[in-house]
Model the fold of this input.
Amino acid sequence: MARGNTKGKQTDKKKCKKKTRAPRERKGLTFGFLMMVLFILAGTGVFMVAMQQGAVSKDLAERRIEDKEAAEKAKQKSLRVEIARLQSPDRVMKIADDELNMTDPSTVIYLKYSRDHSGKVTCQSTTEYGSEPQSQTAGTQPSANEENSGNLTRR
Done:
């Protein structure tokens, strides 16, 4: 019996011993590695989409600015045409005639001041009727515009 007990003890020892296996080499890809690759690919995809969206929004902003520039150039051109129309001599003459009751003068009087040999200021006027000038001379008192040297100044 003692022998039987020895065998039982040996089997108990075998059972108590931990079975150690040699580390198994894994073949293929692990789950963690696959998740890391998937995460990197997803991040790259999100980055590319964000960059594309930024480029599209910049392009739209550039087009809006170009459209505004074209509209402003057209407006500037129309304003230049409007200025030319408003400054036309025919329009100015029409407004002068109609609204301000101004007409072309039928006569033009030119005045010329000079000193005679005695030092008095004389005024000579020339009147034009159409194309015929007429002259008349009259003596006048010295003007307030006359300088001490006898030269006349313009106002």
